[in-house]
Design a protein that fits this description.
The protein has helices spanning 2-27, 33-37, 72-82, 94-105, 115-125, 131-147, 150-160, 169-178, 187-196, 209-225, 231-236, 258-271, 276-281, 292-306, 353-362, 387-393, 396-406, 408-418, 440-451, 487-498, 568-584; strands spanning 42-45, 51-55, 285-288, 314-320, 327-331, 455-456, 462-466, 472-475, 482-483, 515-522, 529-538, 541-548. It is α+β, with helices and mostly antiparallel strands and 627 residues long.
Length: 627
C-alpha cells in the first residue's frame, strides 16, 4: 500500500511537469518579432474609446541590422551586462524561473533571466508579471533555443530590445544617445548602451548620471573579467558624453495638435508611476477624458478664428468639466513637437481679478462686494463703479484697492484655493490685475473650481490605463476632489462675472448664462497688447483661450488692429462654448435661499441642474470634507 502511494507521488511529481511541458509545447507557438512587436505599441484614446494617437517611436519601431554590422565589442558589452554565459547556457535559467515564481507567489516580482528569456519576454511573449507568462516564457525560450542558432537569437535581441528615449534596437539607440550609427560605436559607448537595458528610463545619463556611470563601470569591469578588453584599455576608458534627449527623440505620430495631448498624457502617466519604459514597450491602452466632439469643436474654433491672421500669432485653449476636473478639450498649438502653449506661463491680465473678489469674500470679515466702489470720474463709463461694474468696464484701480484691503498674499492664497499652482513670489497690489504668470491650463482649472461651487477637482487627462492583456493598471478615482470654499462664495464670485455683458454681439444658445472675463496684457508700446485672454464658465464647462506670440512684441490682427481679449479670444471662446451648450444642454446656475438656520449652510434652489444636491454634481459639504 505504502509502495503504491510512493509510486503515485513520484509519478505526480515527475509526470505533472512533463505533462504541463508537453501541453505547452503543443499550444504555444513562437511568434515572429514583427507580429509580437506590434503589441508593444501603446495607444491613447478619447473618452469614448475611439483612438487618438499611437505612440510609435520616431523613425518606426526599430532598424534591423545583420549581426556582422554590430561591432563585436558592442555585442561583448551587452553579454557582459546581461548574460555572460549566453553561448554556453541552454537558453533559460531554471533556477531564476523558480526564484521568480516564488517571488510572485509571495507578492513580489522579477527574477534572473538569460538573454534568450529577455528576448522571449520583452519581444515574443509579453512583460506582465504572472505565473502564466512565466510558464509560456519557459516553453517559448526552449523552442527558440531549439529552432534558432545563438547568433540569430542575439541578433534578434539586439535589434528589438528597448534602450530608452523611444529607441528600440541598437541602431536607433546609437542614434538617440550618440547621433551616429551603431557601426561607429566605441567600446565605452557600447558599454553605456548595454548598461541601460535593465532600466533605460531610470538610468538615462541625462536623467541620472551617477546611476548611469555606476552601471557603465559594471559593464566595463565585466568586459575586463571576460578578457574582452585589456587592463590598459580598462584604465584608459572614459565615461562617454551623450547628446541631449530633446535633440534625438520623439514620436512619429505626434506632429499634429494631438501631439501636445499625448505629451501631457505621458507626463501625467509618469507622475502616476508609469514610466517611459512601460509606455514604450508594454502596449498600454490609455483612455483619456478628452471628448472627441468637444475636441473637434475646439480645434475647428481655433482654425476658424486664426485663419488668415498673421503667422506669428499663437493660440491655446483648454476646456474642463467642472464636475470631475477631466479635461474635455485641449489645444496647445498645431505643431505637436513644438511648444505646448496651453502650459506656457503668461500674464493673465484681468482674467485674474475674480481671485481678488474671492479673496475679499474669504477674508474675515468678508468684504461686501456691493459696498466697495471707485471714486467718481476716471476712464470708466460709470460714475461710481462697484466690483461688478468694474469687471464689466475693466476698472483696474478698484481691484488694486481690493488687493490692498485684503492683502496681496490673500489674493494669491485665494487663487491657490481655486487651483492656480504657479509660483507667485513677492505679490503687491498689482497681483489682482494679473501681472504674475500662470498657464492657460491652470486658469481653466481655477475657473472650473468656481463653476463647481468651490469644489476643486485636480485637472487631469488620464482616465484608465490597461495593459495589452486587459489588466487595469490605473483607474481614476471617482471622487478625487476637495472642498475649497462654499458654494455661496463661488456663486457670489460668479455673479460679479455674469455682469460682464455678451461681447462683440456674442450670446450663447438657449439663453445659457455664463460667467466670463476678458484679459488684455499691455505692451511697452502704448495702446498695444502682448497677450490676450478670454476665460469663463457655465455650470457644466469651463474654458480659457489665450492668444499671443513667441516674442514679446505687440499683437496685431490681419487688419493691423491690436489684439485684445474682446476680439479673437472672445470669438473663439463663444464659438467653442456655443457648441458645448448644444451638445451638453442648457444648465442653470443654482440660486440660494436663506440657508439652514442651524448649520448656516446655503440651500440650493430645487431648480438647480443638479436637483438641489449641490453644484457640479457634488453633494453639499462643509469644512474639509471631500466629495
Amino acid at each position: 500500500m505504502h509502495r503504491r502511494i510512493l509510486i503515485a507521488l513520484v509519478i505526480a511529481v515527475v509526470g505533472a511537469p512533463a505533462v504541463l511541458f508537453a501541453v505547452g509545447w503543443l499550444i504555444f507557438a513562437v511568434p515572429s518579432p514583427d507580429e509580437a512587436t506590434l503589441k508593444q505599441i501603446s495607444t491613447i484614446s478619447y473618452a469614448d474609446g475611439s483612438p487618438m494617437v499611437r505612440l510609435v517611436p520616431k523613425g518606426g519601431n526599430r532598424v534591423r541590422l545583420p549581426l556582422q554590422a554590430i561591432p563585436p565589442h558592442v555585442r561583448d558589452a551587452v553579454l557582459a551586462a546581461e548574460d555572460r554565459t549566453f553561448y554556453t547556457n541552454p537558453g533559460f535559467d531554471l533556477t531564476g524561473i523558480v526564484r521568480a515564481v516564488g517571488k510572485q507567489l509571495t507578492g513580489g516580482s522579477g527574477g534572473g533571466s538569460t538573454i534568450t528569456q529577455q528576448y522571449v519576454k520583452n519581444v515574443l511573449v509579453g512583460n506582465e508579471f504572472s505565473l502564466t507568462r512565466k510558464y509560456r516564457e519557459l516553453i517559448v525560450a526552449v523552442k527558440v533555443t531549439q529552432q534558432l542558432p545563438k547568433d540569430e537569437i542575439l541578433r534578434g535581441y539586439l535589434n528589438t530590445i528597448y534602450f530608452g528615449r523611444g529607441a528600440y534596437g541598437i541602431e536607433t539607440a546609437s542614434q538617440a544617445y550618440f547621433a551616429k550609427p551603431a557601426s561607429q560605436l566605441t567600446v565605452s559607448e557600447g558599454a553605456l548602451l548595454a548598461g541601460l537595458i535593465q532600466s533605460p528610463t531610470n538610468w538615462d545619463p541625462a536623467r541620472a548620471p551617477d546611476d548611469a556611470r555606476r552601471r557603465w563601470e559594471f559593464v566595463m569591469d565585466g568586459l575586463l573579467d571576460q578578457d574582452r578588453i585589456s587592463p590598459g584599455e580598462r584604465r584608459a576608458a572614459r565615461f562617454p558624453p551623450t547628446v541631449a534627449p530633446s535633440a534625438s527623440t520623439g514620436w512619429s505620430s505626434l506632429d499634429g495638435e494631438n501631439g501636445h495631448i499625448a505629451d501631457a498624457v505621458r507626463a501625467e502617466l509618469s507622475a502616476l508611476g508609469v514610466d517611459g519604459t512601460a509606455i514604450a514597450r508594454q502596449g498600454l491602452r490609455v483612455t483619456t477624458t478628452i471628448d472627441p466632439s468637444r475636441q473637434r469643436e475646439l480645434v475647428e474654433a481655433v482654425r476658424e478664428q486664426v485663419a488668415g491672421q498673421p503667422e506669428d500669432l499663437r493660440s491655446a485653449a483648454v476646456a474642463i468639466d467642472p464636475a470631475t476636473g477631466g479635461i474635455s478639450a485641449y489645444y496647445g498649438g498645431d505643431k505637436g513637437l513644438g511648444t505646448d502653449y496651453a502650459q506656457v506661463l503668461k500674464q493673465p491680465g484681468m482674467t485674474f481679478t475674480p481671485f481678488a473678489v474671492l479673496a475679499g469674500l474669504l477674508s474675515d470679515p468678508p468684504v461686501d462686494t456691493r459696498a466697495i466702489s471707485s471714486s467718481p470720474g476716471g476712464a470708466t463709463s460709470c460714475t461710481v463703479c462697484d466690483l461688478r461694474q468694474a469687471l464689466a468696464t475693466s476698472d483696474t484701480g478698484l481691484f488694486s484697492r481690493l488687493a490692498n484691503l485684503v492683502g496681496p498674499p490673500a489674493v494669491v492664497d485665494a487663487a491657490r484655493k481655486a487651483g492656480i499652482t504657479a509660483v507667485i513670489d513677492a505679490p503687491d497690489a498689482s497681483v489682482a490685475l494679473g501681472v504674475k504668470e500662470v498657464t492657460p491650463l491652470q486658469l481653466a482649472s481655477a475657473y472650473a473650481t468656481l463653476a463647481a461651487g468651490g469644489v476643486y477637482h485636480p485637472p487631469h487627462l488620464v482616465s484608465t490605463v490597461v495593459d495589452v492583456n486587459g489588466n487595469v493598471l490605473y483607474q481614476r478615482p471617482e471622487r478625487a476632489s476637495e472642498y475649497r470654499f462654499s458654494p455661496e462664495t463661488a456663486r457670489a464670485v460668479a455673479e460679479t462675472m455674469m455682469s460682464v455683458p455678451p461681447l462683440g454681439g456674442f450670446e450663447l444658445p438657449q439663453g445659457q448664462q455664463a460667467a466670463v472675463q476678458p484679459g488684455t496684457v499691455g505692451s511697452r508700446t502704448y495702446g498695444q497688447s502682448n497677450d490676450a485672454w478670454f476665460a469663463g464658465f457655465t455650470p457644466v464647462q469651463a474654458a480659457v483661450v489665450w492668444i499671443g506670440s513667441d516674442r514679446n512684441v505687440p499683437l496685431l490682427d490681419q487688419e493691423g488692429t491690436p489684439v485684445t481679449g474682446i476680439g479673437l479670444p472672445s470669438a473663439l471662446w463663444y464659438r467653442y462654448m456655443a457648441g458645448a451648450v448644444l451638445d451638453l444642454g442648457k444648465a442653470d446656475f443654482p440660486t440660494f435661499g436663506q440657508g439652514d438656520p442651524d448649520t448656516g449652510e446655503p440651500d440650493l434652489d430645487a431648480s438647480s441642474p443638479t436637483g438641489g444636491t449641490g453644484w457640479g454634481g457634488c453633494p453639499e459639504v462643509s469644512g474639509s470634507e471631500r466629495c
